[in-house]
Amino acid sequence: MSIKVTVPNNSSDSVTFGSANTPTAAEVKGIDSGSSNGQLALYTTASGTSTERVRVDSSGNVGIGTS
To answer: Which end of the chain is more exposed for a tag (fewer CB within 10 A), N or C?
Structure first.
């Protein structure tokens, strides 16, 4: 298992968990973009596709499986 911290020059910073076989198995992203400021999102990857699974908004509300 490897852990990678990414601090890009865009709207989200992330911590990525993976292995040699699956470099991005899961991610935790801090989101700072427009109306999404101060949110935290959890992603998992299956068959090469990263999908958001949980989001905590800036008010502390938790969304699971919602858009």
So the answer is: C
Partners of 29 in the beta sheet? 14, 41
CB 4 within 8 A of CB 20: no
- Cα–Cα dist 31/5, whole Å: 14
Specify the 3-state DSSP secondary structure of 34: helix
Give the predicted TM-score (pTM) of the model. Answer: 0.72
DSSP 46: E
**Entry field: residues in the chain:** 67
> Tokens 């990414």 label which residue?
6
pLDDT of residue 62: 92
Measured between its terminal Cα atoms, the distance across the chain in Å is 30
